[in-house]
Amino acid sequence: MSLELQTASAEYQKLQHELATLVDARTRLDTQLSESEMVKKEFTQLVPSNTVYKLIGPVLVQQDQAEAKANVQTRLDFIQGEIKRVDNQIKEIETKSDQKKDELVAIQEGLQQNQPQIPA
Length: 120
Hints:
Elements: H1 2-43, E1 52-56, E2 59-63, H2 65-114
Antiparallel strand pairs: 1-2
Helix pairs in contact: 1-2
C-alpha cells in the first residue's frame, strides 16, 4: 500500500508540474495577445501615406500596410487558437489532478485504517 501511495504521489506531483508549465505558457500567450492587439490598434491610426517597417533580424524592412495588417491579424488568430488549446489542456490537467488528489486521500485513509490500534 505504501508503494501505491508513493506512485500516486509522484503522479500527482508530475500533474502539478505540467499544470504550472501550462499556466506559464498561458501567461506568455496573454502577453503576446496584448502586444499584437496594441499593434493592431496602432494600425487603425495609420493613413495610406504612412510607411510601415518590419524588424527582420537586425534590419528594418519596409512592408506593405495591407500585408502588415494581415500578418498581425493572422498572428492574433493563431494566438487566440493557442490560448483555447492551452485552456483546454489546463482544464484536463486540473481534472486529472483533482482525481489523483482524491486517490491520494483514499490511499492515506486506507493506510491509517490498516495501522494497528494501540490500546489505551
